[in-house]
Amino acid sequence: MSEISEADSAAELDAELEAERLALLELLLEEESEEATSAPAAAIEHATAQERIPLSLSQRRLWIADRLDPGTALFNIPASQRLSGKLDIRALRAALQALVDRHESLRTTFSTAGGDLGAPGARGASEGFQVIARHREVDLPRIDLSLLPLSLALQTALRLSGLSQSRSFDLERGPLLRFALIEMAPRDSVLLVTMHHIIADGWSLSIFQREFAAFYAGFAKNQPATLPALPIQYADFALWQRDWLRGEVLENQLAFWRDHLADAPFLAELPTDRPRPRVRNFRGGKVARLVADSVTEAFHRLVRGEGVTYFASALALGHAWLGRLTQSDDALIGSPIAGRHRVETEGVIGFFVSNLVFRAQLRGDPTAREVLVRTREETLAILSHQDVPFDLLVEALAPERDLSTTPIYQVQLMAFEAQHRADAAAQAEDEMARTAAMGGLRLTPLTSGDEMSMFDLSVTVAEGGRRLALQYNRDLFDVATVERMAGYFENLMAAFVAEPDRHLSEVAMIGQDERRQLLLEWNPPSARAAFSRKTLLPEWVAIHAADRPQAIAVEMGDMSLTYAELDERSNALARYLRMFGVGPEVRVGLCLTRSLDLVVGLIAVLKAGGAYLPLDPTYPIDRLAGMIEDAGLMLLLAHDATLDALPAGTAYVINLDRTDEMAAMMGVGGAGADGGAPEPPPGPGPEHLAYVIFTSGSTGRPKGVMLAHDGLANLCAEQARIFAVGPESRVLQFASVSFDASVAEIAVALCAGAALVLARPDDLLPGPGLVRLLASRRITKATIPPSALAVLPAGA
Fold first, then answer.
1. Which CA distances in Å does 44 have to 48, 233, 237, 243, 383?
2. Model's pTM, two decimal places?
3. Pick from 453, 433, 414: which is nearest to 317 by CA?
4. How far apart, in whole angstroms, are the C-alpha atoms of residue 509 and residue 490?
5. Which of 181-185, 347-351, 527-531 has the lowest mean pLDDT?
6. What is d(CA 367, CA 24) in angstroms, rounded to the nearest whole number?
7. Which of 109, 129, 296, 455 supports an S-S bond with 465, CB 3.0-4.6 Å?
8. Which helix (H) or strand (E) holds 663?
């Protein structure tokens, strides 16, 4: 692998991909689907003239976005070109005018009509419609920078290109594209071109460049080019789409998507460097790298053997990569589709592009080979239901809207094969022929270097996998993080090749350098030796009970337990739990009020060798039922006050408020061999599970996160060292026991022999009461969330 230079990344990669981006993707997807498309057989025809042409379904989304946020430049498309060679300005202006005359979309503006134009999902609100001008004169202002040195002139041109891209368009007044000519030197100019996305897409840029070159070549020779007449205009497509995609056709398409994305996580839990801002912006960055030819060639041999096309194979890698990043077997990736199923649309400038949503097929820990096959099948199914525009899909699925993120998916993947030398040679020959036809004038796409990122992450796999680029949102990620992610993608490709029958969970995604950093630099032998024999949390309670029996272990209000009392009560309950079969890897639910019993029950489960699962009694009963089922709980600890919160019949309940239960508990075990206290039950080993805590479920179904005793011991030792927690410390237990922050509070305090102070329910309310609690209880360590800190009184 070798790194691409910044200039190569910003210029060569962007220039190569921008013009071909959606065109190549469409060709690949058509190859994948063959006859799987569900587009109707009827051709699109010229529509009869009508006063109001409705918006296409894709245009409707951008029109609504503009109405909600007038003046936004988010949907501007840059298409500027550097012109090298002798320039005929007369031919340039004539070529631009010919393009505008040829394509109605370049003469289109948008207005508002009351009533419903039949749009799927419309509810009688005002609809936009297209206004097509018979003629629009091209305006080509000229900016003379020829007195500046060429390097400075080029920098100025780039800044002007960025300014043009950042200027908004007025959809009602138009025009929705603008030109400017920047003259830098006698044989070096820049043609600034900016369009609004509502009239063009990535495929359209290729049409624009190709037809501009043909028109310019003709006018320069005083022989105007005669291009074949367009079979349709964009407005014809809009009318055809509105007429066809409705009723039963639309409902059948939507039914597939509702089923395919049922219970899907609409927010990817990516390992971001910073919290997501309340309102997303689109400041982007890009990381690019080259993958070794040996890896990409072997990868292509593998996928051809499985009958998987290039796009599906790149998507399979994306699924595996995203699944590992999010630690999930269920994740969504989006990919653009050119939306030009009909041959009539291929030469039309307009907004056809839409987005498809692919769902990772990773359940059951498949092998790399199985992921390839599953993704091939998924791709074929999706391509046969690709006609629903993305905005209608969002409307139908109705995900919870969040201004901080894109709806449904946040990671996009694009793949372009174009890897063969013969293809590259043919492209070079075409470019040479075009340059010759234009009298030696060479066109080179101009990139301003200003990156925008519509998504959290966008992965581009080009040249058959040899060229890899990750575009990212700079509000969420540092460049070093994204560079590692790019390395993970490359490592997965190599792993697919090396061991295609290995399960994904067994595939190493990190490289040798990062492995060395993790194992040696960040975890040197001296540190590993310090943890070679870990004292576990239940063992620490017994140690402190023997060394400092009267020291306070836990207190709440006026009640408290010494370490000796905590040890005795937890031992008794642990022996009782052993009678019910609790031992290593057995999970026990704790549905208890905030109380001393909560700590006793937690330690007792660990002493019995089991693992505890906190169940917040304030949670909805359906959620508790799902957690109990997923964890396979057979036993629960509860109080009278929490019994009603539990789903009926899911597990046996030990009620710690019942006196007969407590008497039975205290009577288990009898006296020890020396007539004293009975022996504690055998405890867990370092490798045994300590606890399970479920995620919030904000991105879908809650997932249980598990930690073993050795990891918990490491956590306690390090946090006690970092925060100087010792026997004289008083640690506040503030977090809900259902959140992982409570683990550090409880375990660190008890391992260190400190006093654990439970906040009463009234103390949990932020404000003056919390300040009084910290002072009256002489708290030395507290973990308080920013939301609570923000409302503390000034000077607290």
1. 12, 10, 7, 11, 21
2. 0.65
3. 414
4. 9
5. 527-531
6. 29
7. 296
8. helix 659-667
Q: What's the confidence (pLDDT) of residue 7?
A: 33
Mean pLDDT of 99-128: 70
User: Which is more confident, 235 or 7?
Assistant: 235
Tell me 475's DSSP state: T
Written as one letter, the residue type at 377 is: E
Mean predicted confidence (pLDDT) in 522-544: 70
Task: Give 87-94 contacts, CB < 8 A, sequence gap 24+.
Answer: 87/187, 87/189, 87/441, 88/216, 88/219, 88/220, 88/439, 88/441, 89/142, 89/181, 90/219, 91/216, 91/219, 91/220, 92/140, 92/181, 92/191, 92/216, 93/138, 93/140, 94/215, 94/219, 94/224
Kindly give the interhelix angle for 563-579 and 537-547, rounded to the nearest 10 degrees.
140
pLDDT class for 421, splitting at 50, 70, 90? very low
| Helix, strand and coil in the chain, % to nearest 5 | 45, 15, 40
**Which residue, among 586, 546, 563, 542, has the nearest Cα to 690 in the 3D structure?**
586
Distance CA 352, CA 56 (A): 9
Q: Cα separation of 167 and 156, whole Å?
A: 17
Which tokens belong to 332? 């969504």
Place of tokens 């007792």: 604
Residue 638 has a CB neighbour count (10 Å cut-off) of 26
Q: Which two tokens stand for residue 148?
A: 């500046």
pLDDT at site 259: 93
Q: Which residues contact 601 (CB under 8 A, 6 or more apart)?
A: 573, 590, 592, 612, 637, 656
| Closest listed residue to residue 538, CA positions, set 705, 757, 746 | 746
What digits encode the pLDDT tens for the residues 301-345? 898 888 898 899 999 999 999 999 998 889 999 998 888 878 889
**pLDDT > 70? residue 666:** no
Of the candidates 602, 541, 607, which has an alpha carbon nearest to the alpha carbon of residue 733?
602
Name the maximum alpha-carbon separation found in the chain.
115
Give me the DSSP letters along 702-722: --EEEEEHHHHHHHHHHHHHH
The tens digit of pLDDT for each residue in 314-325 reads 999 999 999 999
φ, ψ dihedrals at 713, nearest 5°: -65, -40
Report the side by side order of strands in the sheet with 755-758. 559-562, 552-556, 755-758, 730-733
DSSP 757: E
User: Would you state the pLDDT for residue 31?
Assistant: 39
Report which of 622, 628, 587 is spatially closest to residue 608, judged by C-alpha positions.
Answer: 587
DSSP-derived 3-state class of residue 286: strand
Task: Fill in the DSSP letter of residue 690.
Answer: E
Question: What confidence score (pLDDT) does residue 792 get?
Answer: 65
Is pLDDT above 80 for 430?
no
Contacts of 656 (CB under 8 A, 6+ apart): 592, 597, 601, 637, 638, 639, 662
Distance CA 697, CA 626 (A): 11
Helix axes 596-607 and 741-752, enclosed angle (nearest 10): 80
- Those residues with Cβ within 8 angstroms of residue 453's Cβ, 6 or more apart along the chain or in another chain: 282, 283, 284, 285, 471, 472, 473, 474
DSSP letter (8 states) at residue 455: S
Q: What secondary structure letter does DSSP report for 224?
A: -
> How sure is the predictor about 505, in pLDDT bands with cuts at 50, 70 and 90?
confident
Place of tokens 């939306």: 339
User: How far apart are alpha carbons 727 and 398 in whole angstroms?
Assistant: 53
Cβ contact 471:460 at 8 Å: yes
Q: Residue 466: pLDDT above 90?
A: no
Indicate the pairing of strand 704-708 with strand 730-733: unpaired
Query: Residue 415 pairs with which residues in a beta bridge?
Result: 461
Pairing of strands 411-415, 457-462: parallel
